């Protein structure tokens, strides 16, 4: 996992192999790109390339340009399942994802705990990466979204990530966004594919996974901090979404 800036383009016939799945996200500048799947394009700010193991690539800054990228290598059977379902497909997938700061923060969240921080388990990072890929595909399938809606969505997601499962209320968040809850819910669902309640629940469950694997807090303490009525309410909701109880999840991850 890394971020790199290239000052010189590689020779036009130079291809580098892709040993794993690879995401390349362009942060600035422009680069010529082509690979052995037949994709040939110019990578600009906000362009994401998603490719599979075994693909040979050639890319580097356009003449007279510098180019900055953020890239992530990853592998595993779960992503083979994604591939079998058509993602990224027979050809490398090229998407345009903006705003750049929003997506860069999403990608960085996967790897920021890799070095010496045990508060984020490999399982949590795996789940986060899949959520990011799913959101990227959903946004691309929606084709184009007006810039003002992207800003609105980012602000709404920020509000929903704050607080607990029940506080602030969804109605209070809608008020902060200067609209009725029914309008807020409809717009948020259109832009994200999830209702505000489901989005916040997913974020809370993700935080619960982090706390179960990265802290020594009891399950009852975690339930209280996240805003559940009690430990039993938390355990029931956690199992509904993760498939196992919080206790079993902690045991499986920590061994």
What does it look like?
Strands 1-8-3-6-9 form a five-stranded antiparallel β-sheet, with helices on one face. β4 (31-35) and β5 (40-43) form a beta hairpin. By secondary structure, the chain is α+β, with helices and mostly antiparallel strands. The protein is built from ten helices and nine strands.
In short:
The chain has 255 residues and is of the alpha+beta class. 48% of the residues lie in helices and 18% in strands.
Note the main sheet: 5 strands, antiparallel
Q: How much helix is in the residues? A: 40-55%
- The arrangement of helices and strands along the chain is EEEEEEEEHEHHHHHHHHH
Shape: globular
The span between the termini is 26 Å
Q: How many helices does DSSP assign?
A: 10
Oligomer: single chain
What's the mean pLDDT score? 83
Low-confidence stretches: 1-12
Rg (C-alpha, Å) = 20 Å
- Structural class computed from helices and strand pairing: alpha+beta
Record field, number of beta strands: 9
Sheet-strand content, in percent, reads: 15-25%
């Amino acid at each position: 996992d890394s971020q790199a800036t290239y000052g010189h383009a590689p020779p036009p016939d130079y291809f580098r192999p892709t040993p794993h799945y690879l995401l390349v996200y362009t942060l600035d500048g422009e680069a010529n790109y082509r690979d052995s799947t037949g994709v040939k394009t110019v990578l600009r700010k906000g362009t994401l390339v998603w490719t599979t193991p075994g693909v040979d690539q050639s890319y580097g800054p356009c003449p007279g340009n510098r180019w900055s990228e953020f890239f992530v290598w990853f592998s595993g059977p779960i992503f083979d399942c994604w591939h079998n379902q058509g993602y990224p497909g027979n050809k490398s997938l090229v998407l345009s994802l903006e705003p750049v700061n929003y997506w860069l923060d999403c990608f960085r969240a996967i790897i920021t705990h890799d070095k010496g921080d045990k508060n984020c388990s490999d399982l949590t990072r795996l789940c986060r990466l899949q959520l990011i890929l799913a959101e990227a595909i959903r946004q691309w399938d929606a084709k184009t979204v007006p810039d003002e809606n992207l800003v609105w969505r980012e602000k709404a997601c920020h509000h929903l990530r704050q607080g607990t499962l029940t506080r602030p209320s969804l109605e209070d968040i809608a008020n902060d966004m200067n609209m009725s809850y029914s309008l807020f819910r409809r717009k948020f669902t259109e832009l994200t594919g999830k209702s505000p309640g489901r989005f916040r629940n997913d974020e809370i469950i993700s935080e619960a996974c982090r706390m179960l694997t990265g802290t020594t807090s009891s399950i009852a303490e975690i339930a209280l901090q996240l805003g559940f009525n009690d430990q039993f309410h938390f355990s029931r909701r956690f199992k509904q979404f993760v498939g196992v109880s919080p206790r079993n999840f902690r045991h499986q991850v920590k061994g």
